[in-house]
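sorry for the late reply, my laptop died twice this morning and i had to redo everyting from scratch. anyway the thing you sent over, i finally got around to it. pasting the sequence first so we're on the same page, its 118 residues, then the predicted structure underneath. double check i copied it right bc i was rushing
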Amino acid sequence: MGSVILPFILVPLLVYTYFWVNPLAFAVFLEGLTKYLIEIYLGYKEWKIEYETKKAYRRYTRASEKLAHDSGLTGELVKLYFDTYGENDRRTLKQQNREYYEARYKSLEETMRDMLLF
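ok and here's the structure:
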């Protein structure tokens, strides 16, 4: 039983001793960890913006089709519109979602930027 617990005590003790003896390695480790966490956040941010854009674009197309149907227009006309201008509408929605997200989480992103510069 003593040999099973030994690695759980010995490994953290060795890591702690290494960082205590070599504080520069600890600083480099923390900097790398910080950059890694920031990269995870930025990836999440892009995923969140893309996800919200897909949802908004889907709602937009459904509302447009319903409005066209209520106005007496054909579905073919709506399809032609989205074939022509759909990508521009999608880009506009993505830009709006990006601006909203950045305005909402501005303080968090400024804090992370300061952490990188420090």
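The two ends are 46 Å apart (CA to CA).
thats about all i looked at so far, will dig more tmrw
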